[in-house]
User: Which sequence fits this backbone?
């Protein structure tokens, strides 16, 4: 290949455009493999090193398993002796023995931990799309349930685009939660995934239908809570669904920086609690106050209803409406638009407050949109929890990223063996899952180490990026790689496939075989 096209970005951009013509999208982009002279370019081989340049956790687990789990049962794999697989942050406790560039610190003194320590039972339920959020993230980075905790995962729809089933499996979630209320669990937490999942699509009709489904099921849940004598706390983790279009009139498909509402509903009280404004970190102290449990010393959040007397220990239902922000009160807001009898009844008749759910209020960079991981982590911790993007960005600014011993050791071994360095790179500038800044920084380190074989495997976003923006992002990425002087873009695949979180290992197999065998739609 010539020097001008040796980076591979232009070729991949044209392949993406051709895939658009076949009806594909960035998020669900089928594997695209760079081939030259009858061979795939930059496949993963024995003795190589791979850096998974994504943070967070639940979406990275399955692909990491495929490369690292000895007894992996889901599909046959190529033997890759001597392969070193490095993860950016700890995606799951099962990877604790692996090289982790930025190993996390677990949050202590969480809501779930305090309830367990008080000897009370708790019930966490969500669809698989958000199951990690009401377990791992809500519980401060702990995968194992606390004593007395029951976790229930309702499988999200498979084999059909979510915007074709905007109700998803919300009725099953509601049914399971109502059953837990009837059984008398002292604490029940429910996540309704629809607002965020459907909010990420460009289907306006689906967004209206999604809001209607959430509204109806919320009513069923609140009726059951009142019937069973529960205090109900209703809030959200961040905004998304409330914004239908961008300022340019295009479909809005990303998270927002708007606050979220918070209702504290006490069906046994004559005068309803009047919550004060605050942050997501104030939810846990409020729940514990209603349950009569002292807040752990680690919690710095405040009780949102300090003046309300709950009349002793109460059972609590916490409802987290994922991606359900406070937007304009007009027809541009699917949450407000058309008939939403339950939500409008709450908004107009129930005292409520606004909670900040983005930026520094949830441990993110100032002005940065909220996300489900930060949202649930802050709700469960009862305080502001510094997020991985802050830790990583601080490391890049102060130079410690380039001095990270995990990265340096891997590059030293690659150089000694004459092997290749592979970077799994999410093609985005602002996703809570990662940024192209990380692979770019690693390429600069590889250049300084004198590494010659550096391959970048692109994961197209399609959530935090505008639909159809991948070709332009690729061209910009290619120029940045050229400026560094090392690195070849060897293929690409959609985030919905490579970063599956629904146990669909057929998708993960596609990603694995692209990386190891160059399997996919070939381009040159």
Assistant:
């Amino acid at each position: 290949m010539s020097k001008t096209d040796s980076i591979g970005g232009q070729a991949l951009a044209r392949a993406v455009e051709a895939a658009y013509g076949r009806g594909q999208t960035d998020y669900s982009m089928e594997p695209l493999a760079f081939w030259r002279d009858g061979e795939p370019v930059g496949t993963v081989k024995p003795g190589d090193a791979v850096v998974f340049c994504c943070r967070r956790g639940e979406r990275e687990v399955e692909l990491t398993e495929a490369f690292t789990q000895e007894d992996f049962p889901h599909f046959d794999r190529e033997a890759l002796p001597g392969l070193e697989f490095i993860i950016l942050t700890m995606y799951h406790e099962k990877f604790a023995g692996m090289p982790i560039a930025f190993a996390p610190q677990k949050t202590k003194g969480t809501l779930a931990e305090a309830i367990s320590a008080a000897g009370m039972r708790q019930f966490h339920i969500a669809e698989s799309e958000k199951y990690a959020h009401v377990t791992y993230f809500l519980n401060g980075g702990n995968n194992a349930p606390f004593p007395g905790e029951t976790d229930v995962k309702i499988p999200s729809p498979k084999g059909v685009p979510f915007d074709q089933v905007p109700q998803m499996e919300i009725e099953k979630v509601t049914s399971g939660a109502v059953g837990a209320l009837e059984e008398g669990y002292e604490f029940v937490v429910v996540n309704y995934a629809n607002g965020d999942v459907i909010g990420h699509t460009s289907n306006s009709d689906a967004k209206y239908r999604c809001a209607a489904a959430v509204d109806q099921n919320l009513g069923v849940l609140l009726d059951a809570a009142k019937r069973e004598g529960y205090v109900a706390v209703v809030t959200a983790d961040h905004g998304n669904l409330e914004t239908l279009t961008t300022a340019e009139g295009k479909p809005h498909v990303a998270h927002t920086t708007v606050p979220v509402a918070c209702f504290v509903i006490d069906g046994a009280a004559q005068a309803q609690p009047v919550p004060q404004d605050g942050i997501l970190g104030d939810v846990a102290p409020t729940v514990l106050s209603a349950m009569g449990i002292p807040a752990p010393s680690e919690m710095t959040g405040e009780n949102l209803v300090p003046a309300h007397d709950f009349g002793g220990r109460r059972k609590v239902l916490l409802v987290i409406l994922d991606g359900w922000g406070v937007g304009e009160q007009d027809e541009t807001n699917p949450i407000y638009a058309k008939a939403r009898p339950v939500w409008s009844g709450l908004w107009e008749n129930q005292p409520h407050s606004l909670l900040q759910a983005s930026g520094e209020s949830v441990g993110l960079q100032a002005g940065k949109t909220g996300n489900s991981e930060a949202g649930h982590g802050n709700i469960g911790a009862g305080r502001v929890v510094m997020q991985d993007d802050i830790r990583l960005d601080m490391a890049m600014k102060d130079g410690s990223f380039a001095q990270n011993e995990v990265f340096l050791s891997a590059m030293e071994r690659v150089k000694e063996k004459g092997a290749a360095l592979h970077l799994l790179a999410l093609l985005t500038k602002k996703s809570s899952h990662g940024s192209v800044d990380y692979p770019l920084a690693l390429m600069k380190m590889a250049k300084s180490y004198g590494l010659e074989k550096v391959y970048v495997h692109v994961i197209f976003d399609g959530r935090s990026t505008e639909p159809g923006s991948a070709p332009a992002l690729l061209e910009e990425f290619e120029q940045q790689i050229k400026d560094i002087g090392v690195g070849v873009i060897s293929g690409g695949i959609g985030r919905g496939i490579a970063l599956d979180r629904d146990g669909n290992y057929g998708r993960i197999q596609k990603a694995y075989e692209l990386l190891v065998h160059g399997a996919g739609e070939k381009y040159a």
DSSP finds 16 helices and 17 strands in the chain. The two ends are 9 Å apart (CA to CA). The chain has a mean pLDDT of 94.
